[in-house]
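Propose amino acids for all 320 sites.
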């Protein structure tokens, strides 16, 4: 197995070396041909156009060099950066799909930087007056980028930015959606590079880091036509289960916003049987489940359902 890995590695290195040498040889031959034309005075028949043609040919060679450098950037540097960032992304999220998306977005934006610099390089070649200004501009941009990257590595900013790239391309929510992230429940009012802002049912504005959203995940109730409302309740074992089920279902049927269709009627589940040290008796945990087509009113519907449940048990003389 070791010998096989060494063979594969050797073949890979040869392939990449041939790729580089072929382009260097091609550029070298083109440059030698241009020198031959110039110093052999083979373009003298062009008269006044000789210098213009020579300058044009030289710029073509320089343009090829820029394009080959761009190819090398995408072939070698971009994958290397992906490998460099992989341990960081791995530490940010445990989901393989999210990792791939974050790394894919990072790789794409780094490639964009390469295309921008290649375009600026071609501009400096074909427009001589741009050269001095472009050199100063690129120097300042390089310093800014390095400062920015250092800042990213020394804080959680990188994770939030990568999470933003991931969330924008997953397309799982939009502004105005009713969502739940951890214990936070409300409507999305803003989605930025670093934070997702939601407005809760209590009219509070909460800013949640994008990295936290990726790690914890979210529930988007607005993306569904019908949402299930479920509330657990624990009662003593000696209470008749049929009476409890009847009270829970009637409480749900009385609640505004709960659907009453034949295939979407409320139902009760038995979740657990446990021993209560306080009462010295066994207890059963029930769960009322009911459907609603008004996800934006979920908090209000839950509150009314709980109120109806309390009223139903009080009228039946059952202590909770």
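Proposal:
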């Amino acid at each position: 197995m070791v010998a096989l890995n060494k063979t594969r590695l050797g073949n890979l290195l040869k392939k990449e070396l041939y790729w580089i040498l072929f382009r260097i040889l091609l550029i070298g031959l083109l440059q030698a041909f241009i020198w031959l034309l110039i110093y052999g005075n083979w373009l003298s028949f062009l008269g006044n156009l000789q210098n213009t043609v020579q300058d044009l040919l030289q710029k073509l060679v320089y343009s090829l060099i820029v394009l080959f450098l761009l190819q090398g950037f995408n072939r070698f540097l971009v994958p290397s950066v992906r490998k460099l960032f992989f341990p960081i992304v791995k530490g940010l999220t445990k989901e393989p799909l999210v990792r791939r998306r974050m790394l894919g977005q990072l790789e794409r934006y780094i490639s964009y930087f390469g295309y921008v610099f290649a375009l600026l390089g071609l501009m400096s070649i074909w427009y001589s007056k741009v050269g001095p200004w472009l050199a100063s501009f690129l120097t300042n941009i390089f310093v800014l980028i390095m400062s920015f990257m250092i800042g990213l590595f020394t804080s959680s900013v990188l994770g939030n930015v990568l999470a933003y790239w991931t969330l924008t391309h997953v397309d799982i929510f939009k502004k105005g959606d009713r969502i739940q992230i951890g214990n936070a429940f409300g409507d999305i009012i803003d989605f930025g590079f670093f934070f997702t802002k939601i407005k809760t049912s209590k009219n509070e504005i909460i800013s949640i880091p994008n990295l936290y959203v990726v790690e914890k995940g979210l529930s988007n109730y607005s993306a569904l036509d019908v949402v299930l409302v479920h509330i657990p309740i624990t009662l003593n074992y000696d209470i008749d289960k049929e009476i409890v089920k009847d009270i829970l279902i009637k409480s749900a049927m009385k609640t505004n916003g709960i659907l009453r269709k034949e295939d979407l009627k409320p139902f009760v589940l038995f979740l657990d049987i446990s021993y209560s040290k306080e009462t010295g008796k066994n207890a059963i945990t029930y769960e009322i489940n009911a459907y609603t087509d008004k996800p934006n009113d979920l908090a209000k519907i839950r509150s009314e359902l709980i109120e109806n449940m309390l009223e139903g048990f009080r009228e039946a003389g059952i202590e909770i």
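The first strand starts at residue 178 and ends at 181. DSSP finds eight helices and eight strands in the chain.
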